[in-house]
From TrEMBL:
One of its GO terms (molecular function) is metal ion binding. This is 2-oxoglutarate and iron-dependent oxygenase JMJD4. Belongs to the JMJD6 family. PANTHER family: 2-OXOGLUTARATE AND IRON-DEPENDENT OXYGENASE JMJD4, ARGININE DEMETHYLASE AND LYSYL-HYDROXYLASE JMJD. GO terms for cellular component: cytoplasm; nucleus. It holds the Pfam family Cupin_8. Residues 143-302 form the JmjC domain.
Length: 427
């Protein structure tokens, strides 16, 4: 998208603020289907779905040119096991057992990919039954392991992706995944990491999604405050165990066909079933539209840790640091890394605003190229949202109790730089 297109959308960038985010109830459980993707712009998606935190489905036209759609699927729409084995047979992949519950999730093991495909073929041959249970290949970082493979291209709608921009920059992790599983495999009730957005594209097969708007999960907790493992389980009807279940809305139900992409809003809990042998590509991502939700989630997570170990507050000299360590072990991030996350995102945008983009960077698939594609106005929007969250983080008492001398630049200096960059860009 060129800058002129985004310039036409100045008003909606200016008018929306963090108060526009939050729970959204869909009338009648309706989810929009985007059929004409060729005429559906990023601005349309930003206005109608990202900002209001509203799900939608993109038609299979959006993925028809992907290498995985061409090569990973047989003529009759099934997984192309031979091709997959040829390309990835020696990989080691994470596999979950859908028939076992362990700490409110499915236990995982690492298996050779060729062993998993052998299991899958036998599972189909035996009428979708095995003494090993229903095994589901989940959270495979295929793009990171095989960057040379022609698998897919991230659609422009999902290109403002701060999570992967940051984790790519520090070369530690990413939030791009491949899922493969037989008919009957499923994912228990959950919300995505950091309460991020997610998008999920079916390469082949069909999925059924049960979605609950953000906030509805409060009615699904048991009397101890725990969420259900399976939101369809009969024991949710027992008011002595789930006292508020009758106040919850029915889930929004989506059946996703081959080639389609589902957009899941930030903080929406969901449960997902594979109705057929299915392969999907999934991303989790955060950007200026939902970074405040991520920050609220981190504060809630730290508060939960503090309550859990409150009795040890006096005997432990570095109690606040220990709480940060526990939170990071549970969520993958602590307050200081969250600061660095915001810094990397902000500095990338400041660099483009102050220095522009050279031809070499424009030609590459880099964060700066993505920023340029979405336009300078979008970079300013990102910086404004970062300023709001960074201001809140800097004023947070738990953050101020940490040793912040290692942060470079200091929070006050970074905030000053951000505000100056915004003012200059808007002149």
């Amino acid at each position: 998208m060129d800058r002129a297109t985004f310039a036409c959308s100045t008003a909606f960038f200016r008018d929306y603020n963090s108060s526009s985010q939050g729970a959204f109830c869909l009338p009648g459980g309706h989810v929009d289907f985007i059929e004409k993707v060729e005429s559906f712009t990023y601005s349309d998606f930003f206005r109608d779905y990202l900002i209001p935190n509203h799900p939608c489905i993109f038609s299979a036209k959006i993925t028809e040119d992907w290498g995985s759609r061409r090569n990973w699927v047989t003529w009759d729409g099934k997984p192309n096991f031979d091709h997959l084995l040829q390309k990835f047979g020696e990989a080691v992949v994470p596999v979950a057992n859908c028939d076992v519950k362990e700490y409110n999730s499915n236990p995982k093991e690492q298996l050779p990919f060729k062993e998993y495909i052998k299991y899958w073929k036998e599972y189909i041959k035996n009428g979708y039954c095995s003494s090993r249970g229903c095994l589901y290949l989940k959270d495979w970082h295929l793009s990171r392991a095989f960057p040379e493979q022609d698998v897919y291209t991230t659609p422009v709608y999902f290109s403002s992706d701060w999570l992967n921009e940051y984790w790519d920059a520090i070369a530690v992790d990413d939030y791009r995944f491949v899922y493969m599983g037989p008919k009957g495999s499923w994912t228990p009730f959950h919300a995505d990491v950091f309460r991020s957005y997610s998008w999920s594209a079916n390469i082949c097969g069909r999925k059924k999604w049960l979605l609950y708007p953000a906030g509805q999960e409060e009615y699904l907790k048991d009397r101890h405050g725990n969420l259900p493992f399976d939101v369809t389980a009969p024991d949710l009807q027992d008011r002595s165990v789930y006292p508020r279940y009758n106040q919850s809305q029915p889930p929004v139900e989506i059946v996703q066909e081959a080639g389609e992409i589902v957009f899941i809003p930030s903080g929406w809990h969901h449960q997902v079933y594979n109705l057929e042998d299915t392969i999907s590509i999934n991303h989790n991502w955060v950007n200026g539209c939902n970074v405040a939700i991520m920050w609220c989630f981190l504060q809630d997570e730290l508060a939960a840790v503090q309550r859990e170990i409150n009795e040890w507050k006096d005997p432990i000299d570095d109690w606040h640091l220990q709480c940060q360590l526990i939170m990071k072990s549970c969520t993958g991030i602590d307050y200081k890394e969250f600061y660095n996350f915001l810094k990397v995102i902000a500095e990338n945008r400041i660099s483009v605003l102050e220095n522009g983009l050279d031809d070499e960077a424009s030609a590459k698939n880099t964060p700066k190229a993505a920023i340029s594609t979405l336009g300078m106005l979008h970079a300013v929007f990102d910086l404004k949202r970062t300023v709001k969250v960074l201001t809140s983080l800097s004023a947070n008492e738990d953050f101020k109790k940490l040793d912040l001398t290692s942060l470079s630049p200091p929070p006050e200096a970074l905030l000053h730089h951000l505000k100056a960059a915004i003012d200059t860009a808007l002149l």
